[in-house]
Design goal:
This protein has 15 helices and three strands. It is mainly α. It folds into two domains: 244 residues, no CATH class; 110 residues, no CATH class. A three-stranded mixed sheet has the order 1-2-3, with helices on both faces. Helix 8 runs antiparallel to helix 12.
Length: 383
């Protein structure tokens, strides 16, 4: 167990690297807990900007003018039509409305009773068109039903507002908000695990490639297979500790909401991904022991996998080509499993694929290690 103990000692020496990653991650997670706070939904109506010119003294025209002023942003309109048209052209107005002198005649004959010019680029223009059409539709319906028009009753009918009630936790912490928070947390856990494993285990394995350490290990009566198995056991235990530690942190982030989350399923998924990330790290360490390469790969691979797999950017915004590439790496299946757990859907298939990635990476790493081990011992014998 000498190799196993020495490995744990080297892990402890990397404590500041580990704590810096975990500290930043926990801090960001704590800041994001405001997603779980009580929120009240509200809406504020934005009225359209309309220039209105009244040219008729007919009571019906005046009633329509009163309605239009009530439905617009303010009651003060420009008196110069040319400047109003210029404002419409410049985008300062949504609509330009003229109530002509023959308003009642037009209304009775079925002609458009107002002269309407809209800036189709503005949302308010479509809104005011609907309001005007609604006014005349109600007016015709009232005249058909009562035989005459009643401006007061018409205004009351137009002023009626629907009653809207918010349900499903609009003023309390909702289940969907809690699940969304923990889904984000567990997805970013994959980024942290890849970054820590590659950097920390890379630095540790570099220690074992030092010439003095190689000479010392050559004196110990231990086969290369047993040597590597003890190293792998040390990495495995540390990896499982990190994986379960991330789950424990998630639990204490919001203990009052913990009963909503399927912790066992998330723990299985995180452990499976930790094994896949460990296998990838094992393969990288077998290929290179350069500290600068490890530092670079720690950043590039963790961020790269996170961007193409749906951690940093939702998959809905990624192109099909990017999603296809992401399927060649385990993080994509980890994210899928996380989404399935939140949706209470089957996730074991994605977990199984992650374990297959772990086996494949480990097998490749062992093959490379055996080649490098033979080369290392041959160099020592020559020396």
């Amino acid at each position: 167990m000498r190799v196993f103990k020495s490995f744990n000692i080297l892990v402890f020496r990397q404590k500041w690297v580990i704590l810096s990653y975990l500290g930043i991650f926990v801090l960001i997670s704590l800041l994001n807990t405001n997603q779980l706070a009580t929120k009240t939904l509200g809406f504020q109506q934005t009225l359209p900007r309309v220039a209105l010119f009244q040219e008729s003294s007919d009571p019906k025209a005046l009633a329509f003018e009163a309605f239009l002023k009530k439905e617009t942003r303010n009651s003060e309109f420009q008196t110069d039509q040319s400047s109003a048209k210029e404002s419409l052209y410049q985008g300062y107005l949504d609509a330009f409305v003229i109530i002509p002198e023959d308003f009642s005649v037009r209304l009775a004959s079925g002609e458009p009773p107002v002269l309407l010019t809209l800036d189709e680029r503005q949302e308010g223009a479509h809104w005011i068109r609907q309001k005007i059409e609604k006014y005349f539709l109600f007016s015709q319906a009232q005249k058909k039903a009562l035989g005459q028009e009643d401006p007061a009753a018409l205004q009351a009918a137009l002023a009626a507002e629907p009653i809207v009630k918010f349900t499903n936790g609009s003023t309390t912490t909702s289940k969907e908000r809690i699940e969304r928070y923990y889904a984000t947390y567990f997805k970013f856990t994959a980024y942290i695990l890849v970054a820590i494993f590659i950097l920390v285990f890379g630095n540790i394995m570099r220690e074992y490639s030092e010439p003095n350490v190689l000479r010392r290990n050559s004196i110990i009566p231990m086969s290369s297979t047993k040597f590597q198995l003890q190293l792998m056991a040390g990495q495995l235990i540390v990896s499982l500790f990190f994986a379960l530690f991330m789950v424990v942190i998630a639990f204490f982030m919001q203990p009052s909401c913990a009963k909503i989350i399927h912790w066992a399923a998330h723990a299985v998924n995180v452990v499976a991904f930790a094994l896949a990330a460990l296998g990838l790290t094992f393969l990288i360490n077998a290929i290179t022991r350069n500290r600068y390469v490890h530092s670079g790969l720690s950043v590039v691979l963790s961020l790269g996998f996170s961007f193409i797999s749906g951690v940093m950017i939702p998959k809905e915004f990624l192109s099909p080509a990017v999603l296809t590439v992401s399927r060649f790496f385990p993080m994509a299946y980890y994210v899928d499993a996380t989404d399935n757990i939140i949706a209470h859907a089957p996730f074991l298939q994605e977990v199984g694929i992650q374990l297959l990635f772990a086996l494949a990476f480990t097998a490749l790493g062992l093959a490379v290690y055996r080649l490098r081990q033979r080369e290392g011992f041959s160099v020592l014998q020559k020396a």
